[in-house]
Amino acid sequence: MTFSLIAVRRPVYGAPGSVIFIWSVVGAGGEMVMEEGRPGPSKPAGDRRPQKREKKDKQHDKQQPCEGFSIKAMMKNSVVRGPPPAGSVKERPAKHTAFRKFYERGDFPIAVQHECGGNKIAWKVQIEELDYHYFLPLFFDGLCETEFPYEFFARQGVHDLLEHGGSRILPVVPQLIIPIKNALNLRNRQVLCTTLKVIQHLVVSAEMVGVALVPYYRQILPVLNIFKHMNVNLGDGIEYGQQKRENIGVLIQETLELFERYGGENAYINIKYMIPTYWSCM
Length: 282
What we know:
Layout: E1 6-13, E2 19-27, E3 30-35, H1 48-61, E4 64-66, E5 78-80, H2 98-105, E6 110-113, E7 120-123, H3 132-141, H4 150-165, H5 173-185, H6 189-205, H7 209-212, H8 217-227, H9 248-262, H10 267-274
Parallel strand pairs: 4-5
Antiparallel strand pairs: 1-2, 2-3, 6-7
Helix pairs in contact: 3-4, 3-5, 4-6, 5-8, 6-9
């Protein structure tokens, strides 16, 4: 016994300008009627393509920032953020020093002496009579100060003590390392210049002081390695900071050369270990 199916497509006219097609399937079981979908309003073929492209462009523009080395970084439309700044040259906040406390309390025998050539320190006692184990570390601790009169008294007082210290400076060198390290770690440009000038004066102030500083290069030189190449490149311009000795890169180079000249035979290899870009000046 065989069955046959016959499909017939018949047009049905509806509203003006619209035609609906009906399929009739006739078989042994009866007739089944199916209606075709109504065609939408006719549009040019080029109208739909720009819309699809715009959607793709909008999806492409929706880029989401994410952290590196994460699962989200491997997803589509993800943009990996760059690494944050390390902050190696960022200035650190300064704290009140023991020098300020002792000065406000009146423990230092000093006063300001105003002269036409600039201010000086008027010492109320002979500098040679001072206890260097007590006063010199305190004045070095004041190198972190940036306000007047603390900055002036600390800077000028250190130079006066080093100038008249002689053989009494060498035994005090181990007590000066922590104040020097604290001043350098502030990353303050003014404090850096002042501290580098003081270190240069310290190295040449007495015999064997440069050799005594060699074991402490690991505390002093890391900050110098960061700022070693901080020079001002003005082309054919004039950099007036050189006259006032305010160029950090030049001061660091001068300090390292003094370390090598006065530090003995082991000075260069220790400087080279902490600052690989340094070349010998001898």
